[in-house]
Amino acid sequence: MLKEFKAFIARGNVLDLAVAVIIGAAFGKIVTSLTEDILMPVIGRIFGGLDFSSYFLVLGEVPANLQGSSDYEALKKAGVPLLGYGQFVTVAVNFLIIAFIIFMLVRTVNKLATTMEQEKKEGTAEPAAEPADVALLREIRDELRKRD
């Protein structure tokens, strides 16, 4: 079973997927910070508030110690039922940013693949690089010809 596991892990697709997941997680944190720390405060300022997550509706009883509080996280931790539409908008903007970036990435890769395929059909693509051993043998041959 250990040998099968090693063979499974050593396959290129699994390693590529693992790298993609790690990079995706880091990229997700960057986009979350961009959304929460840069975009949403600006959007919140435009709509009259500095903290967009403070837009919510209280749907139940608020404990006495939190009466009049507008702290979404504190109310949520206290178990107060809330309709947090501001938080939802933040997450939706986050999703749209990620979706747009992925769209642009896929679009670029598709254009590159199409261009390469056209060049291949037209014969205008650069020829593949000559292997180093063949180039070295040619140099040796040329040097030997010069001596004669």
Secondary-structure map with pairings?
Layout: H1 2-10, H2 12-46, E1 57-58, H3 72-77, E2 82-83, H4 85-122, H5 132-147
Antiparallel strand pairs: 1-2
Helix pairs in contact: 2-4
Family: Belongs to the MscL family.
Subunit structure: Homopentamer.
Membrane topology: Multi-pass membrane protein
Structure, briefly:
The protein is mostly helical and 148 residues long.
Explain what the structure shows.
The protein has 148 residues and is an all-alpha fold. It has a single domain (2-50, 84-147), classed as Large-conductance mechanosensitive channel, MscL, domain 1 (Non-ribosomal Peptide Synthetase Peptidyl Carrier Protein, Chain A). The chain is 70% helix and 3% strand. It contains 5 helices and 2 strands, in the order ααβαβαα. The chain has a two-stranded antiparallel ribbon with strand order 1-2. Helix 2 crosses helix 4 (85-122).
**Annotated CATH topology:** Non-ribosomal Peptide Synthetase Peptidyl Carrier Protein, Chain A
- Beta-strand level of the residues, as a percent range? under 5%
Please work out how many helical segments DSSP would assign. 5
Intertermini distance = 63 Å
Principal-axis shape: elongated
Helix content: over 70%
Structural class: mainly alpha
Mean pLDDT: 82
- Major β-sheet, in short? 2 strands, antiparallel
Give the helices and strands as they follow along the chain: HHEHEHH
Q: Can you tell me the CATH class?
A: Mainly Alpha
The main sheet orders its strands as 1-2
Q: What would you say the CATH architecture is?
A: Orthogonal Bundle
Cα radius of gyration in angstroms: 29 Å
Poorly predicted parts: none
Total strands: the figure is 2
Q: CATH-wise, what's the superfamily?
A: Large-conductance mechanosensitive channel, MscL, domain 1
What's the number of domains? 1
